[in-house]
Amino acid sequence: MMKRWHAAKRLLPLFAGLVLLLSACGREDLSAINPQGPVAEKQYGLMTLSISIMTLVVVVVFAISFYVIIRYRRKPGQNDIPKQVEGNHKLEIIWTVIPIVLLLILAVPTAKYVFAFAEDYSKDENAIKVNVTSHQYWWEFEYPEYGIRTAQDLIIPTNKKIAINLRTQDVLHSFWVPSLAGKMDTNTEGNLNKMYIEATKENVYRGKCAELCGPSHAYMDFKVKAVNEDTFKAWVNEMNAEPKAWTGDPAAYDKFKTSCLSCHALDNSQSLGPNLKGLGSRESIAGIMLNRDNVSEPINQDLMEQHLREWIVDPERVKPGNAMTNGMTGVEFTDEELDQIVDYLSNYKLDSLKEINKQ
């Protein structure tokens, strides 16, 4: 017994080190314990309540266990059996009632909020409706009330409920913005899931796919940009405006049109690939190639152009298994054509998002 205890003591520093190491894993902007909206705050409250109850139970059980071990341990020369409490009605009532009370304390708010989180705001006149479609490995966002269709960046006004309809174009995915709400699966047509999110302050919130969906599942990221009401209206106007004019070589534009725009779009029409309108205002290329030196600095134009060039030239290296790899088969651009395409897309910025992109 003593040998086992000495062996366990040698492992304690290792386990303590692992706890400290794992506590530093992940990102602050992808944390469910850093709530930034009403839904996430209530979910965090439920987590806090359940962890508090579990901690209380563990502490009490261990305290009683240690007390019993010490108080009633066999003493030298003691051979009699201590008084047994089996069948003690008072004790049995106590350790039956206490768990029931604890379960009720947890169950009542859980049931209350589970139904509240599932409330359908799609018919609420004050809510913003968004149809979210998941693809391997990108996100499409449609605003049916505004006739807008975009990708990768979900733009929402602060202090408004965003009613979301979730569907998938291929395999099962899961929509998750940890700082704003819990995850919800995207199902096929006819079995739509619905949820809502809400942000109380202007910020950029990171989102991910939370359902294993293929080799690039870990790279299926998106951004939620919460802006004020005026900025949102300005963004809607820009998205409904005519696409930015091409100022380069017409021959290069023809190549861009026949190759890139056969799958993508610069207007609000539906397309096979992500919508490219306002690509220069997005925080990342392909959802994962961050156009910032770090998350706290403004978008770096040179870095964006570098990432865009890498993505166009070799999308399979960036996101294995993505649909663009097959779509680019046989398409080759000269250096001059590639430079013009990169220049056009990276400088296709939306003035309405300038301030949020500085955060």
Polypeptide structure, described:
The protein has 359 residues and is α+β, with helices and mostly antiparallel strands. It is built from ten helices and twelve strands. The protein has a domain at 250-357: Immunoglobulin-like (Sandwich), CATH 2.60.40.420. The mean pLDDT is 86. Its EC number is 7.1.1.9.
Topology of helices and strands:
Layout: H1 2-23, H2 38-71, H3 89-117, E1 128-135, E2 138-143, E3 148-151, E4 153-157, E5 162-168, E6 173-176, E7 184-186, E8 193-197, E9 203-209, E10 221-227, H4 229-239, H5 250-259, E11 284-285, E12 289-290, H6 301-313, H7 315-318, H8 323-327, H9 335-346, H10 354-357
Parallel strand pairs: 1-5, 4-10
Antiparallel strand pairs: 1-2, 2-3, 5-8, 6-7, 6-9, 9-10, 11-12
For the record, give the distance between the C-alpha atoms at the N and C termini, rounded to a whole number. Answer: 58 Å
The CATH topology of one domain is what? Immunoglobulin-like
* Pattern of helices and strands: HHHEEEEEEEEEEHHEEHHHHH
* Inertia-based shape: elongated
How many individual helices?
A: 10
Percent of residues in helices comes to 40-55%
What is the radius of gyration? 28 Å
Detail the poorly predicted runs: none
- What is the averaged pLDDT score? 86
Strand content: 15-25%
CATH architecture descriptor of one domain: Sandwich
Look at the structure and give the CATH class of one domain.
Mainly Beta
CATH evolutionary superfamily of one domain = Cupredoxins -  blue copper proteins
GO molecular function, one term: oxidoreductase activity
Keywords: Copper, Electron transport, Heme, Iron, Membrane, Metal-binding, Respiratory chain, Translocase, Transmembrane, Transmembrane helix, Transport
Main location: membrane
GO cellular component, one term: plasma membrane
